[in-house]
Amino acid sequence: MNYTYYTDVLILSFCINIGLFFSFKFFYIYIIIPLYAAYQIISFIFKYFLSSPFGSAEPSKRMEKMEKKKNKVVYKTVY
């Protein structure tokens, strides 16, 4: 299990608590955590629920080049 989000929140909370010694406005930095969570949830919804299940209708230019390269006849020279 990856604990990077937990450690990030812990470090952010520690820095905010240090900043609260100087000004109460540091408390507003806590809004970053729910905003980031909302961003992750919305990106998940757009990625998996609103995308097309069959992909794009026309192939990309890169795929067309790969197909041409694969179908190209290769001549070998014999010495």
E-strand count = 0
The largest sheet, given as strand count, sense and whether it forms a barrel, is: none
**Proportion of residues in extended strands:** under 5%
Number of domains: 1
Query: How do the helices and strands follow one another from N- to C-terminus?
Result: HHH
Which structural class do you get from the secondary structure elements?
mainly alpha
The number of helical runs is: 3
Low-confidence stretches: none
End-to-end C-alpha gap: 60 Å
Query: What is the CA-atom radius of gyration, in angstroms?
Result: 26 Å
Mean pLDDT: 83
DSSP helix fraction: 55-70%
Shape type: elongated
Task: Outline the secondary-structure elements.
Layout: H1 4-19, H2 32-48, H3 61-71
Report on this model:
- It is a multi-pass membrane protein.
- The chain crosses the membrane at residues 9-31, 37-57.
- Keywords: Endoplasmic reticulum, Membrane, Transmembrane, Transmembrane helix.
- Belongs to the TMEM208 family.
- By secondary structure, this protein is mainly alpha-helical.
- The protein has one domain (4-71).
- Helix content is 56%, strand content 0%.
- The protein contains three helices and no strands.
- The protein has helices spanning 4-19, 32-48, 61-71.
- The longest helix has 17 residues, at 32-48.
- The radius of gyration is 26 Å and the shape is elongated.
- 0% of the residues are buried.
- The mean pLDDT is 83.
